[in-house]
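Q: what does this look like with adenosine-5'-triphosphate bound?
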Amino acid sequence: MEIPVCIEIQSVSKRYKSSQENSLTDVSIDIACADVFGLLGPNGAGKTTLISILCGIIPPTSGQVHYYMNGSQISDAKRKSKIGFVPQEYAFYQELTPRQNLDYFGAMYNISKKRLEVRREELLEILGLAKSADKKVGTFSGGMKRRINLAIGIIHEPEILFLDEPTVGVDVQSRNAIIRYLQLINESGTTIIYTSHHMSEAEEFCKHIALIDHGKVIAKGELEGLKAANHVSSLQSLFINLTGEEYRD
Ligand SMILES: Nc1ncnc2c1ncn2[C@@H]1O[C@H](COP(=O)(O)OP(=O)(O)OP(=O)(O)O)[C@@H](O)[C@H]1O
């Protein structure tokens, strides 16, 4: 049985107003429902730009993005309540505690007080933040900050979750906790689209990938199939084979 498409990206190009060049050129990708999809590529490839377009934060210069749920296209308004976004930058208030941050962002999604309380405590527990739930987030380690960033992005139980480098700068323990939790919510049906520079993590985590370089898709498909077709045994080798060794400064 064919898995239905959840996000259809059609010929998306982006040129920022201040720029002479495209940051994305003619990007077309289909992402299946309940997939773990990796958007991978070197620095400056266009990954954050693409995620920002998919989340509706910035518009494409040309091209279209369609979202589908239960086989039907959904409106932009409906899409907003269905998606979650965990950005690369910390998106919380340093002066507030994890409980206060989660209450604040939960209220923005109009979650009922009762449901929010349950969801908040559940996330604090699962992500190992319960003991520090009443301390200011500004005093936290990098790993704890990444985990609270994740908790905020999923407080409203999104069906589609975008994560931009969710494990950057964290230790192995926090990385494992984050990936384990993401695997858990994927198993219960959440579609995950994520970027990372951590190739062994992406290799373990992603089912399908798109490799982007200089704003263009240079490879896409099922990860194992791409490795076999390129005669390599690891995602890192595939990445180097297709994007080369030179710096992207
Ligand atoms: N607001 C902006 N205005 C102008 N150019 C931008 C803007 N944001 C990004 N760019 C440019 O668009 C290109 C793609 O950047 P983007 O941040 O999407 O890449 P990335 O793949 O996420 O990189 P990284 O892995 O370093 O985070 C780069 O050349 C970048 O300089």
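The pocket of adenosine-5'-triphosphate is lined by residues 16, 18-19, 23, 41, 43-49 (CB under 6 Å). Residues 139 and 150 are 17 Å apart (CA to CA).
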